[in-house]
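User: Show me a protein chain along with its predicted structure.
Assistant: Here is one chain, sequence first, then structure tokens.
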Amino acid sequence: MKFALFSDIHANLEALEKAFSHASSLGISRFVILGDTVGYGANPNECFEWVLSHGSLVLMGNHEKALTDIPLRLHFSPLAAEAIEWTAARMDANLISKSMTLEFMRTEKDLTFVHSSPDRPENFPYLYPQDDAAPAFQSMKTRICFIGHTHIPSCFCELSQTAENLKPGIFKIPQKGKVILNPGSVGQPRDKDPRLAFGIYDDELQTFEVFRLEYENQKAAEKIRKAGLPRRLADRLL
């Protein structure tokens, strides 16, 4: 079993289409969406419709939650708050209703899928390599957990007590101990590499491969500017 993990698409249609095309060319037909499909970018309707059509599992991110949870926006940065207000005003009402039904976390066999962390997933805590991952590991009821939220490809290994950012390529998953894996962000990378990021998990080989691809980020940025969203959101893509 092999499937792709897309997280933090953030309404970036150009990045999403590139990631989908590349993953499909590798024979991938199952796509797991780890949340934050909307927010920041100029194509929330198109991207959310895509994940509903193609995602075998689509999870709730904090940006989906904030479409209707106004108090949650108080915890957003000013840029994020402005972007989600813009998004909520322009998203199709039917799509917003569907976003409210998404799960925060899903467990399938020996795998957990969540946007933020298996520890308090409804509160959307961030988990960076420099953070203490013990609460997340203690909350896990499976050996492997896939997360997003930080926009940075990364890996946490309980047994070796190591945590690191992942470069493009294949990571061999340890056979023992719990592991947390983050594929990075399709639509809004934040590790000083403007290329989109996503991951592919291979159950048989027990590998997690991180992909970084160039895409039409200039076009995505220009659409953000024309939409009247903050220019900094466009500059981030470049």
